[in-house]
Design goal:
alpha+beta; three-stranded antiparallel β-sheet
C-alpha cells in the first residue's frame, strides 16, 4: 500500500544516516539515496578547513568535501591563518542578488513617494510619469540610460545610496556601481548595456519579480554567493556570473601551494581567459536551458 511504501522509504532514509554535507533524497526509482547538499544556510561562522581554505560555516566545508570527494576536516574555528593559498586573498567586491534587489527596492520606494493623485485643479502623476521624469532628467539625449547615467539617478536620493553596512566608503561606492550594472542586466533585452524607457520601466515595475540566476561550473550549478578557487584566486558567484580576483600566484606564497603543484605564475592574459571561459560555460548552460524550455 501507499502508506507501507512511504513508511519503508522513511525507514530506509533514516537508516542511511547521511554524513555531513549530504542530505536524503528519493531517486528516480523511488529508492532513498544520499546526495551532496544543494545549498547551505547563509549564516556566517567561519571555519578553517584542513585544506587551508576558509569556509563561511561548517555546512559549506562539508558540502565542498562532498562535491570534491576530498576528505576535509575542520582545523579550527575562525578564518585560516598563515596559509595564504585561498583564505588570505580577499574575496572580490561583488553585487549579490540580495544587494541588487535591495537597491531596486529602495529605488522603487523612493519613486513611489513622488506619485501624486489627481486634484481638483491639478493633474497628478502616476508611477510611469515619475519614471519618465527622472529618465529624461538623466538621459543625455540619446533616449537611453547607460550605467553612468543610472548611477547618477541612484545617487539623487540618499536612502538608495547605502545598500551595505560596510564602513569602507570606497568599496561601498564600487558596490553601488556594480549593482547598477546588475540592474541594467536585469532588463536589458538587446544586451547593449543601456536601458531605453521601456526597459527602464520594466526594471523598476513594482510587480516584477527579478529572477534568481545561478552559476554553472563543470556540470554543476551554484547558488548566489558560492565560492570556488582557481589557483590562488577566489571566485564568487554573483548575479549569475563568476567574479574572480586577479592576484598573480607567487610560488613562494606557501608550502601548501607547492604541494598542490600550483607554483606557476598566472599572467593577466591567462587569467582573463580563464574567467571568460567560466562565464562562457555559464552562457552555454543558460542557452541549453532556454532551448529545452522552448521544446
Amino acid at each position: 500500500s501507499l502508506s507501507l511504501s512511504l513508511s519503508l522509504s522513511l525507514f530506509l532514509s533514516l537508516s542511511l544516516s547521511p554524513s555531513s554535507g549530504r542530505e536524503c533524497a528519493v531517486a528516480e526509482k523511488g529508492e532513498p539515496t544520499c546526495l551532496c547538499m544543494e545549498q547551505c544556510k547563509p549564516h556566517k561562522r567561519s571555519v578553517c578547513g584542513s585544506n587551508g581554505k576558509t569556509y563561511r560555516n561548517h555546512c559549506e566545508l562539508h558540502r565542498d568535501a562532498c562535491l570534491t570527494g576530498l576528505k576535509i576536516q575542520v582545523a579550527y574555528n575562525g578564518p585560516c591563518e598563515g596559509l595564504c593559498v585561498f583564505s588570505c586573498v580577499a574575496a572580490p567586491v561583488v553585487c549579490y542578488l540580495d544587494d541588487r534587489n535591495e537597491l531596486r527596492r529602495r529605488l522603487i520606494e523612493w519613486l513611489q513617494t513622488e506619485v501624486t493623485p489627481n486634484g481638483w485643479f491639478i493633474k497628478g502623476s502616476n508611477f510611469s510619469n515619475v519614471l519618465l521624469k527622472y529618465f529624461q532628467s538623466y538621459d543625455n539625449g540619446d533616449g537611453q540610460l547607460d550605467s553612468t547615467e543610472l548611477l547618477r539617478l541612484v545617487q539623487h536620493n540618499d536612502t538608495a545610496i547605502n545598500i551595505s553596512s560596510s564602513a569602507d566608503r570606497e568599496n561601498d561606492q564600487l558596490l553601488r556601481s556594480l549593482c547598477v550594472d546588475a540592474l541594467i542586466d536585469l532588463s536589458d533585452e538587446n544586451a547593449d548595456w543601456k536601458l531605453d524607457f521601456d526597459e527602464f520601466l520594466s526594471c523598476l515595475k513594482p510587480g516584477f519579480n527579478p529572477p534568481e540566476k545561478k552559476c554553472a561550473l563543470e556540470d554543476e550549478t551554484y547558488e548566489d554567493g558560492a565560492e570556488t578557487q582557481m589557483n590562488c584566486n577566489r571566485c564568487v558567484c554573483a548575479c549569475g556570473n563568476w567574479v574572480c580576483t586577479a592576484v598573480a600566484c607567487d610560488e613562494k606564497l606557501s608550502a601548501l601551494e607547492e604541494a598542490e603543484d600550483a607554483d606557476r605564475e598566472t599572467t593577466e592574459e591567462e587569467w582573463t581567459r580563464r574567467v571568460a571561459e567560466l562565464n562562457k560555460h555559464q552562457e552555454t548552460v543558460e542557452k541549453i536551458k532556454g532551448s529545452t524550455k522552448e521544446v
